[in-house]
Backbone:
């Protein structure tokens, strides 16, 4: 969820252009649909163009209500008050499961389910399902497996984008020898550290173990967790490689450390929304001065992607709501937003040329090409007390590990104690 909050504050995407939408949809004149989501600013404007295309296609009146960070509270209040929206865009699978268990959400129609299966890798259908029934359509996604680097810094040492974790550490040492840190880590924001861990864990333990840890079917004291922390310690444990005090560095500053003037580091890890921070806060040009490479392989691991995303769910069982869900599951809807920037989709049938630049096209392609090796942000799958609370749970434990990477044994014990409490075990 946190990545969308950052993007809402910092996004600076274009608001012109768009894809033509063909007619031929259901006749919904006189019917109305309300959609609630977190998006505001440029993201809201872009999504409203998607809804305008739906209105043009069907004749339905569509209203979008932005709820920002308070989306869970807004939805819970409205459901309890008997005034739920027609559709909502939700970033937390756990919240969706909560509404399903309360009987508040409608399973998606066979037509929508077919569309999801046709246009997406199977993992996205699994992520949108609760107890074997499909409730959600992933309309917008984030590729959280990207390492962004300064072309200038790499050129100074003749470096090329590393393909393995060990190459990343070696490249980092060569960069540090020039007097500039290798990487800036936004450790003041605990969620960035969960993303680091998840990428390394997915590559060292594999997708099946990732799923088990995400459900707390194995404890955080499992040797696979220690192995991932040991790999992280190769980078985090050498303070010459890290810019400044990472525990005092917030996410936006970690990006500016690399692409601002004067530059303090050569690389920063985070999702595709880093591009918006670069464009908003620096003079660097994405795709020229600022480039990315996929999170490297660890010990020969296959390509994989950790993803976040916004899932459309249906609260009202009427024709207009069902048709909107069907539209959001189609490549037609994604093709409206894609040219405007600030958008990736797991929908494999959105053509590459719909995206506005090579960097976005590459990020989207890697998200799609990862297929079933995509895994959702683990901390967003966890109870908020463990995976989503500032100064507590996994956020705090990984901050403590960043402060002292030699203390892995104590950290995994603390992680397990906090997880067991949050999961009720």
Residues:
């Amino acid at each position: 969820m946190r990545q969308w909050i950052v993007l809402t504050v910092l996004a600076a995407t274009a608001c012109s252009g768009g894809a033509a939408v063909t007619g031929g949809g259901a006749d919904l004149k006189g019917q109305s649909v309300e959609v609630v989501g977190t998006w505001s600013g440029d993201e809201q404007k872009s999504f409203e163009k998607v809804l305008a295309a739906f209105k043009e296609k069907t004749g339905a009146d569509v209203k979008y209500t932005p709820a920002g960070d308070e989306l869970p509270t807004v939805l819970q209040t409205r459901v309890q008050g008997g005034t739920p929206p027609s559709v909502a865009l939700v970033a937390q699978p756990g919240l969706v499961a909560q509404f399903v268990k309360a009987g508040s959400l409608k399973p998606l129609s066979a037509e929508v389910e077919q569309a999801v299966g046709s246009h997406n890798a199977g993992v996205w259908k699994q992520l949108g399902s609760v107890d074997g029934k499909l409730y959600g359509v992933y309309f917008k996604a984030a590729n959280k497996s990207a390492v962004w680097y300064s072309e200038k810094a790499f050129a100074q040492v003749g470096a090329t984008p590393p393909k393995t974790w060990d190459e990343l550490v070696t490249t980092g040492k060569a960069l540090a020898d020039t007097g500039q840190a290798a990487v800036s880590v936004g450790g003041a924001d605990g969620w960035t550290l969960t993303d680091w861990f998840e990428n390394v864990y997915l590559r060292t333990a594999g997708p099946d173990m990732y799923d088990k840890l995400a459900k707390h079917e194995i404890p955080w004291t499992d040797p696979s967790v220690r192995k991932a922390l040991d790999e992280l310690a190769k980078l985090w444990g050498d303070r010459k490689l890290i810019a400044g005090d990472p525990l005092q560095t917030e996410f936006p500053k970690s990006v500016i450390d690399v692409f601002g003037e004067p530059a303090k580091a050569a690389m920063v890890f985070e999702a595709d929304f880093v591009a918006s921070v670069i464009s908003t806060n620096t003079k660097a040009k994405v795709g020229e001065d600022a480039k990315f490479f996929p999170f490297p392989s660890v010990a020969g691991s296959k390509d994989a992607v950790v993803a976040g995303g916004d899932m459309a769910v249906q609260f009202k069982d009427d024709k207009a709501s069902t048709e909107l869900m069907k539209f959001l599951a189609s490549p037609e809807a994604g093709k409206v937003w894609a040219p405007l920037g600030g958008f990736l989709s797991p929908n494999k049938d959105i053509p590459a040329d719909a995206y506005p630049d090579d960097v976005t096209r590459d990020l989207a392609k890697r998200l799609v090409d990862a297929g079933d090796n995509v895994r959702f942000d683990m901390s967003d799958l966890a109870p908020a007390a463990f995976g989503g609370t500032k100064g507590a749970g996994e956020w705090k434990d990984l901050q403590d590990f960043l402060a002292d990477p030699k203390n892995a044994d104590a950290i995994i014990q603390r992680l397990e104690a906090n997880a067991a409490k949050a999961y009720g075990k």
